[in-house]
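Project channel, design review

CF: Before we commit to the Flavobacterium hercynium constructs, I'd like one complete example in the thread so the newer folks can see what an input/output pair looks like. Taking Peptidase M50 domain-containing protein.
RD: sounds good, go ahead.
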Amino acid sequence: MIEKNTNSINLKYIFLVFVAVFLSTISHELAHWGMGQFLGNKMTVSLNTANPISGSYLQEWHRNYITLAGPLFTVLQAILCYFLIVRYKRIEIYPFLFFPLVMRFAAGLINLKSPNDEGRLGLSLGIGLLTISIFVCLFLFVLVRNATKELKINWKLNMLSFILCCLFLLLLTFIDAKFKIKLI
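CF: and here is what came back for Peptidase M50 domain-containing protein:
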């Protein structure tokens, strides 16, 4: 059921965005880590990175599967959240759908400086640096747009959500770079 004032901006919503950013980012990195471990690579994972402990993969072909695992998990998270929103009409789920779009959009922009997940994968497959990022972002945008209509969310809440996602992602990235907190 949609709450009467879906577009209200309150501390609960801000906290939900923070939780969505934190859990989504960690889950994305754990997907990289899990695929690496599954393929036999000893992996380490921090708040915003997952890498083989040795510095290289056991087999070069592992790189593409490990690279794909993070974005694939993030897209699957968004799909699940979209269907939960359609079914239950709960604004509390929205940050967990909205953040994957922001996350993959930011990753796409970072490709311009240094190839990120989708960029590395696109280059490896010979389809270009931005091709996969563009398709992933367009797909996630359609899910967010449809959920926005479903929940009757206004542009102000979307703008606030975008700003909060960016701020919390920058904070998480800064903490990861500054303190190098290893999760595993």
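RD: helpful, thanks. The helical segments are 11-38, 62-88, 94-110, 117-125, 131-151, 155-179.
CF: The mean pLDDT is 95.
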